[in-house]
Amino acid sequence: TKTFINSSMPFKLKLAARPLHSPYQIRFATMNDLEQILTIYNHEILTGTANWNDQAVALEQYQQRFQDMQQQQFPMIVVEDQHHNKVAGYAYYAAFRSISGYRQSIEHSVFVDPSYARQGLGKALMQQLIHLAIQQNMHIMVAAIDSENTGSIVLHEQLGFVQTGYMPQVGQKFGQWRDLVWMQLQLSTTQ
Length: 191
Prior knowledge:
Number of helices: 4
Number of strands: 9
Radius of gyration: 16 Å
């Protein structure tokens, strides 16, 4: 199996050789991708319920987040439309909680530009995140999903995630209370 070494990060991780249909390629994100990533992220913040932030994020804030993730050795990946030189989606994981006992548990996020929806890009990004997390000896991958995001819930179930919690009215978006579904995937076989 051919793998690709992440040359843009200070640690060595390899992407799985899972070819996507042309013209898409998954690769590690770079600082040069952040403007396009932020366009996708801020669109979701301002129009969707997959993310409960209500304020668009500035590029400087996101650059700092990206640098912090790299220092903590957490990857961010993008799926690129090579015909248009455009980031079609991105994904990353980071610490689930900052307490040391959670150091092998991570929480992930996946966002796809709406114009690229329903093409399997979110699933491909998720499969790569799982592959990378296993390389880093992570034990549990956590997903926090808006309860009305049935597409995301079904995708996570297809990838082996199980629902482990449901929190009614725990957050707000657009003036409405939102329910949160917790799902998780066990990555390692050790108990």
